[in-house]
Amino acid sequence: MNFPIEKTKLGSDRKFNLSDPKEREEYFKLKCGVEIEKLKEYLNNGHTFIAYLLGKKNSGKGTYSKMFSEVIGTDKIEHLSVGDMVRAIDEEMQDTQKKAELIEFLEKNYRGFYSLEEIIKSLEDRDTKSLLPDEIILVLIKREIAKRKGKVILLDGFPRNLDQISFSLFFRDLVDYRDDPDIFILIDVPMNVINERIKWRRVCPKCNSSRNLKLLPTSKIGHDDAGFYLICDEPNCDGGKMVMKEGDEKGIEPIKERLLMDEEILKRAYSLYGIPKVLLKNTIPADIAPNYVDDYEITPGYSFEIVDGEIRTIEEPWIVADDDGVQCVSLQAAPVVVSMIRQLVAVLKI
Ligand SMILES: [Zn+2]
Q1: How far, in Å, from the CA of 231 to the mean position of ligand 1?
Q2: How far is CA 253 from CA 191, 196, 199, 260, in A?
Q3: Which of 96, 120, 124, 131 is such that its CA lies 20 to 30 A from the CA of 278?
């Protein structure tokens, strides 16, 4: 796969703090303001599109979606996670009224190789590990899309296997989604980046927000016998010690197979004809990075030290090997979203 390197460098002295929403807004205006206006106008004129987000687990699909909708308009963009959808179905099955409505919907809309009785039984008996058949996933996505008429949908978690890629080719016909295009958004993030994201991930037990001790620390740091830790700084949280989730210390090991399958899906989607593609890359070879991006667009690595009884944060460049072993820098989410916006405008021909 050959993903282009997006040039977002402006060569101006202006620096932006990309974790500050206000500065981020100015940053986007400067780097892709024209494209943002074009996209907004396109959506205001009643056009929409469906984008399939394809990338490895933990490649940042949720983060990019959230930032994209923040820039373009949260009222216009919906992130539809198939994983969340399936979990919601489990809850619907517990509610007599909702369950009856779901079954009525399936009676009208489901087509497939399993009988409806088998499908309903599999929904009733499902433990959270077992997967639902592709046909039922399709019809349930169709139901969710119908609820979101007139909105851009960023579909996350479909296709999740090679069979579903073929389904997705005919998806537009299936959902009768007016005359608007569907687009593949492919996200390429190296295994090592995902590994570090998982290993250093820390979660607040009080508000569940997630940060990263090495790559995305909070503003408050604590220290005890076990070392340095993050203190939650979410505005609505009274600030707990953020902890590692069980299993995170193993990094990508437990999900290696899933990641390899995601990689295979990515390659297959990349080779498809007939569907416009947006190609997003999260890394740039370190030796050429200064030609393409401004310093503040690169993800730094953080470590901590105690000097005179006070905790100090040390910020250093973070260099990580990509899947070909090339030494790279990793990009913050914002420049990747700039690339996404520019490419969307190009493939939508607006
Ligand atoms: Zn919290």
Answers
A1: 8
A2: 10, 12, 10, 11
A3: 131
Environment of ion ligand 1 (residues, CB < 5 A): 204, 206-207, 232, 234, 237
Helix, strand, coil percentages (3-state) for the chain, rounded to 5, are 45, 20, 35
Which value, to the nearest 10 degrees, does the dihedral of the CA atoms of residues 86, 89, 94, 100 take? Answer: -160
Residues in the chain, pLDDT under 70 = 126-131, 173-178
Question: Can you give the three-state secondary structure of 166-202, one letter per residue?
Answer: HHHHCHHHHHCCCCCCEEEEEEECCHHHHHHHHHCEE
Ligand 1 centroid to 217 CA: how many Å?
13
pLDDT at 173: 67
Measured in angstroms, how far is the CA atom of residue 23 from the centroid of ligand 1? 24
pLDDT number for residue 178 = 60
Strand segments (E) across the chain: 50-55, 77-81, 152-156, 182-188, 201-203, 210-212, 220-224, 227-231, 277-281, 283-285, 300-307, 310-317, 319-321, 327-330
pLDDT attached to residue 314: 95
Going from the Cα of 241 to the center of ligand 1, the distance in angstroms, rounded, reads: 8
Q: What is the model's pLDDT at position 256?
A: 95
Sequence-ordered list of residues with C-beta below 8 angstroms from that of 340, at least 6 positions apart, any chain = 64, 68, 185, 278, 280
**Treating both helix axes as pointing N-terminal to C-terminal, what angle do 134-146 and 82-92 enclose, rounded to 10 degrees?**
90
Residue in this structure with the two tokens 């994201």, named with its chain if needed? 197
Pairing of strands 152-156, 77-81: parallel
